[in-house]
Amino acid sequence: YRILIAPVASRLDPAKQIFLIPDNFLFRLPFSTLVSPNDGKFLVAGHRLVVAPSASVFLVNTDAARLRNRS
């Protein structure tokens, strides 16, 4: 949490999703278990997390969802 989330925590909007595209060893990190040292709450308690295996997969799924919502 201290390295990945704390530097941007003040900019995260709880009403919006956090999209994560981990690389290398970060694929093994269970992001839902990250705990804020400030309040002791899990990151997922205040934010919806979406994890994609790659930027290209993220973009394909985002485009597909956008097209579905237009119909």
Essential attributes:
two-stranded parallel ribbon, 71 residues, alpha+beta, 2 strands, 1 helix
Largest sheet: 2 strands, parallel
Could you estimate the helical fraction of the residues in percent?
10-25%
Instruction: Give the number of helices.
Output: 1
Q: Could you spell the SSE succession in H and E letters?
A: EEH
Mean pLDDT: 90
Instruction: Give the distance, in angstroms, between the N- and C-terminal Cα atoms.
Output: 39 Å
Briefly note the structural class of the backbone. alpha+beta
Overall geometric form: globular
Radius of gyration: 14 Å
Number of strands: 2
Strand content: 5-15%
Strand order of the largest sheet: 1-2
- Runs in which pLDDT lies below 50 for 5 or more consecutive residues are none
What does this molecule look like?
The protein is of the alpha+beta class. It has one helix and two strands, in the order ββα.
Walk me through the topology.
Blueprint: E1 17-20, E2 48-51, H1 55-70
Parallel strand pairs: 1-2
Summarize the structure.
By secondary structure, the chain is α+β, with helices and mostly antiparallel strands. The chain is 23% helix and 11% strand.
